[in-house]
Amino acid sequence: MLIAVIMAGGTGKRFWPLSRQENPKQFLKISSDLSMIQVTAKRLEKAVKAENIFVVTAASQAHLVQEHLPCLPKENIIVEPEGMNTAPAIALSTYYIARKYKSTDKMFVLPADQEIIDVDNFLETLVPAEKAAEDNNLVTFGITPHYPATGYGYIEAGKAIENGHEILNFKEKPDSETAEFFINSGNYYWNSGMFMWELGVIKRAYEDYLPKIVKLFKDIEIKWDKEGLSADISELYAKMPRIPVDIGILEQADRRVVIPVDYDWSDVGGWKALYDMSAKDEFGNVLKCESEILDSSSCYVHSNKLVSLIGVNNLIVVDTDDVLLIADTSSSERVKEIVTVLEANKKHHYL
User: Fold this and answer.
1) Sign of torsion over alpha carbons 93, 204, 1, 259
2) Is 133 helix (H, G, I), strand (E, B) or coil?
3) Which long-range contacts (CB under 8 A, 24 or more apart) does 20-24 make?
4) Do residues 133 and 242 both lie within one domain?
5) Torsion angles phi and psi, residue 42, rounded to 5
6) How far apart are CA 206 and CA 212, in angstroms?
7) What is the pLDDT of residue 218?
8) 221-237, pLDDT tens digit by residue?
9) What per-residue confidence (pLDDT) applies to 150?
10) What is the distance between the alpha carbons of residues 210 and 153, in angstroms, rounded to a whole number?
11) How far apart are CA 256 and CA 166, in angstroms?
12) How far apart are CA 239 and CA 163, in angstroms?
């Protein structure tokens, strides 16, 4: 049995001002007529039965999941009382799902907001991942890097084994020089944030490496037994350590495998990433608007208005009803800094 858990609780700060608290990035139509979460669910159709697809999301976004995935059973929406990073979110999903499935059933965890062009290849790579997971391994997917990206974490792969490679190390987002070294080494992969494991194996991993989370879930399960899966667990959940599953478990685990993959992937992490993956005109512009352009190149523009660019290059322009964002493409990652400033200045109506 293969179960899929789509992580859809983020706020998408790097996609502000389109991504807002009431309608975050994963619910936007970024690259097609479907929202990102709809595209992700559709991508799974041939590999996972509909009743075995779950979504873990923030309480404030549960209604959006229902709206965008109306065929998803309501009980397949796993609600996080508040965002606590991926280790608690995946633990919540694991303990929730384990009440229904066997310990040997496999759990595929993936974000709701990634772009994968070659879906057939994506589905094919699930097969060796499932086989690797059968050997009590924690499995992740490493994207073959095509340039020295500084915006992704990396996985250092070791010797080849059946159905993958041993993992030597996880590396945080590097500087340019280190990223060049990773690319030239030939055994480093972008960390995709997608995982596969057996339910029993990941539960034991939490017991070994994050016992505080396990202790809290023992109390949560008591509440579930008494009050049902809709019980209020917010007080207990707020005590969870805010830690990514990579750092909390995978960096410490003994049995871990990376599956190298190459299917035209992007985490669509911000405006530059969207510009890079979008079709461009002869001057390298991506124009999501009516436009008249003179002597301008390599710009991304999103607006409901007529936009004219004259003699400018390498700009990100995003125009909404209440916000106009203009950024140099090389600085577009700093959008989240603006969101932090707005939060600090209590300008919540722009968030």
Assistant:
1) positive
2) helix
3) 20/351, 21/60, 21/351, 23/64, 24/61, 24/64
4) yes
5) -65, -35
6) 9
7) 96
8) 999 999 999 999 999 99
9) 84
10) 22
11) 6
12) 38
Cα gap 7→107, rounded to integer Å: 12
Q: How big is the CA angle at 192 (ends 280 and 103), to the nearest 5 degrees?
A: 140
Side chain identity, residue 177? E
If asked whether residues 289 and 262 sit together in one domain, one would say no
Residues of the chain with pLDDT under 50: none
Residues paired with residue 107 on neighbouring β-strands, in sequence order: 3, 197
Name which of 165, 171, 164 is nearest 150 in CA terms: 171
Both 262 and 311 in one domain: the answer is no
With residue 234 as reference, give the H or E element that holds it.
Answer: helix 234-237
CATH code of the domain covering residue 172: 3.90.550.10
Which amino acid would we find at residue 345? N
Q: Are 242 and 84 in contact (CB under 8 A)?
A: yes
How many angstroms separate the CA atoms of 293 and 26, rounded? 31
pLDDT of the residue at 149: 87
Residue 297 has what DSSP assignment? B
In which domain, by residue range, is 79 found? Answer: 2-266
Q: Which residues contact 203 (CB under 8 A, 6 or more apart)?
A: 94, 95, 98, 103
